[in-house]
């Protein structure tokens, strides 16, 4: 591990002795991991819905949404704190050192906010794992230009922070964020597809049963 850190420090200046750096890295991995575990458990066992919120799946989803949003804010705060404790070095020449990060932050936030607007609270915060399914696939902006605009937007904001504060290690963390999101999507995507496929199969079976009942009559 020490040799790997030494090799990275040859290319990217950072202070590995700062505890805030490792706390930030842990928080970045914790969020998608924890929420995927909680949501999968909810889909299988309805733990929050049945045991905590008296069978109300929507309130359970709102509770999870508040938790995800709150921990996301904490993660961002820990990331900023970690950046400020790291060596500063100019990354871009003026005036690009302010224009590029500002543009990345604005576009990234547009992707995140418009995704939430299109999906709604339950669509954004894993409502399908609670049995709250969307009627149809969302195809409006930003989903007509990106498959996973929320993750892309979030990654852009991490990069924006690194460039704004001129902390090269932030770009390394941004790459780490991107890898974490790719791994999370490998679990989220197929599982979500399975949920909607199950619904469609149930609909088809229901239609076949109706047709057979009419024939019997």
From TrEMBL:
Its main location: endoplasmic reticulum. Residues 1-18, 40-51, 123-165 are lumenal. Its EC number is 2.1.1.71. This is Phosphatidyl-N-methylethanolamine N-methyltransferase. InterPro entries: PEMT/MFAP, Phopholipid_MeTrfase. It catalyses: a 1,2-diacyl-sn-glycero-3-phospho-N-methylethanolamine + S-adenosyl-L-methionine = a 1,2-diacyl-sn-glycero-3-phospho-N,N-dimethylethanolamine + S-adenosyl-L-homocysteine + H(+); a 1,2-diacyl-sn-glycero-3-phospho-N,N-dimethylethanolamine + S-adenosyl-L-methionine = a 1,2-diacyl-sn-glycero-3-phosphocholine + S-adenosyl-L-homocysteine + H(+). The chain crosses the membrane at residues 20-38, 59-79, 99-127, 171-189. Residues 75-101, 187-217 are cytoplasmic. GO terms for cellular component: endoplasmic reticulum membrane; mitochondrial membrane.
């Amino acid at each position: 591990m020490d040799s790997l850190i030494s090799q990275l420090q040859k290319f990217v200046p950072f202070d590995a002795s700062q505890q805030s750096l490792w706390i930030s890295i842990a928080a970045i991995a914790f969020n998608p991991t924890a929420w995927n575990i909680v949501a999968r458990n909810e889909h299988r066992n309805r733990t929050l819905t049945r045991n905590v919120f008296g069978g109300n799946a929507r309130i359970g989803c709102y509770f999870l949404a508040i938790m995800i949003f709150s921990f996301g804010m904490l993660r961002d705060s820990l990331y900023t704190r970690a950046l400020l404790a790291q060596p500063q070095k100019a990354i871009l020449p003026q005036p690009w050192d302010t224009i590029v990060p500002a543009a990345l932050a604005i576009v990234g936030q547009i992707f995140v906010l418009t995704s939430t607007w299109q999906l709604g609270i339950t669509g954004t915060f894993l409502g399908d794992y609670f049995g709250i399914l969307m009627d149809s696939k969302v195809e409006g902006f930003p989903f007509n230009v990106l498959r996973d605009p929320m993750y892309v937007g979030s990654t852009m904001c991490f990069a924006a922070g690194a460039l704004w504060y001129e902390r090269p290690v932030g770009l390394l963390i941004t790459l780490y964020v991107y890898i974490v999101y790719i791994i999370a999507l490998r679990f989220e995507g197929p599982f979500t597809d399975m949920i909607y496929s199950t619904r469609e199969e149930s609909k088809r079976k229901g239609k076949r049963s109706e047709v057979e009942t009419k024939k019997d009559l």
